[in-house]
Design brief:
Order of helices and strands: HHHHHHHHHHHHHHHH
CATH topology: Growth Hormone, Chain: A
Number of helices: 16
CATH architecture: Up-down Bundle
Number of strands: 0
Number of domains: 1
Length: about 375
């Protein structure tokens, strides 16, 4: 399940290190919004497709979604112009949410005392997909081309679907809701659980900063100060993969001591990463900052999921929809904001944007530190 989640989510990040190459091949301002469109698609898929995990047999849903993802990747690979690439990217984002069918299913199959560790393990695979996708895409785009990277994604999606068909048990839903009532119930869940709102807003802010950095990194490295290409931008994914170690560790700590402290420390680490990005204008500064950024965001993510999945077990897919939907709406906003900040003034406005988002997340956690919520249970 960790492998499948990683393969699925990787598809929404291939475009980030390739963005400069894609812009040269597909001139026009619309190409720069491919990362934003992909994340908006992911957010849309979270709200439209992930609730189906509470309604239909989950194994079949996962396999079908992987098949659709392979088709969307093929469309992106053959698209003759920027407009169709953007549309295909939207579809890729929507269908890549199969990763978010896998994560709550892992929580569903685990025992309560092991849920944090189980989710942490699957999230470690998902996070490897997020980070190493950039390394793979940067290398392939530099040496073969960006279309070839999308073509490579096709058999990977098919293989992941076949793997899930072979190993997953059948898992029937626990609800008798209709699809319409499931969608309508999202608002009720948001209103009912303060812990869900706090977790979602915090993670949205952190992920907005995370997406801002990774959207602009390839463009930043192409500046005369560095004069580096997409392959080097992709290598930062390997550096950031250190943060994957945070997922299982954070899950085990959340199981033993509760997730609240881990979330606060993760938000603080994320803020520190932007301080490093701003003060150290060197490759060493980027390396240190990436480690802090990824470690902080992933620690907070797993711990927030620990809170969310415990709120109502029979509604885990919908709770995951709300939480991850908010997170990726934040990511899309961060990508779009970073693109505009970069156009307005380069790297410094991007750093100020990312630092401000992280600071708000820290303040939210500090403001709620004295209150008792579901996260303490």
């Amino acid at each position: 399940m960790a492998v499948a989640a990683g393969v699925a989510v990787a598809n929404i990040y291939y475009n980030q290190p390739m963005l400069g190459i894609m812009e040269r091949d597909l001139p026009g301002s619309i190409t720069s919004f491919v990362p934003t469109t992909t994340q908006l698609g992911y957010a849309a898929g979270l709200f439209l497709l992930v609730p189906l995990g509470d309604l239909v047999e989950r194994k079949r849903l996962i396999v079908l979604q992987f098949g659709g993802l392979a088709v969307a990747l093929a469309i992106a690979a053959v698209a003759p112009g920027a407009a169709l690439v953007v549309l295909a990217s939207l579809l890729v984002g929507i269908l890549s949410t199969v990763a978010q069918q896998v994560v709550p299913l892992a929580a569903h199959l685990s025992t309560p005392d092991r849920r944090g560790a189980t989710v942490g393990t699957v999230m470690a695979g998902l996070l490897c997909g997020i980070l190493l996708s950039r390394t793979l895409a940067g290398f392939v785009a530099t040496h073969l081309g960006w279309r070839e990277m999308f073509w490579l994604g096709v058999p990977m999606a098919i293989g992941a679907g076949a793997l899930m068909a072979a190993v997953l048990p059948r898992s029937m839903p626990d609800t008798t809701h209709s699809y319409g009532s499931l969608i309508r119930s999202l608002g009720g869940l948001w209103s009912e659980f303060a812990a869900l709102r706090k977790a979602a807003v915090t993670q949205a802010l952190l992920f907005a900063g995370f997406s801002a950095f990774w959207t602009i990194l390839a463009l930043h490295l192409q500046e005369p100060h560095f004069s580096l290409g997409a392959d080097v931008a992709g290598l930062f994914g390997i550096v950031g993969a250190v943060g994957v170690l945070a997922a299982p560790v954070a899950g085990r700590i959340a199981d033993r001591r509760g997730p609240r402290l881990v979330i606060l420390l993760g938000a603080i680490m994320t803020l520190l990463s932007w301080v490093v990005f701003g003060l150290l204008g060197s490759i060493a500064g980027l390396v240190i900052g990436v480690i802090l950024l990824d470690f902080g965001v992933q620690s907070a993510l797993v711990s927030n999921q620990h809170i969310v999945y415990a709120l109502r077990p029979e509604a885990r897919a919908r709770l995951n929809t709300i939480f991850m939907g908010a997170m990726f709406l934040g990511g899309a906003a961060g990508s779009a904001g970073a693109t505009m900040a970069w156009g307005a003034g380069g790297w410094v406005p991007v750093v100020l944007l990312g630092g401000s988002l992280s600071a708000f997340a820290v303040l939210i956690q500090i403001a709620g530190a004295g209150s008792r919520s579901a996260s303490d249970v």
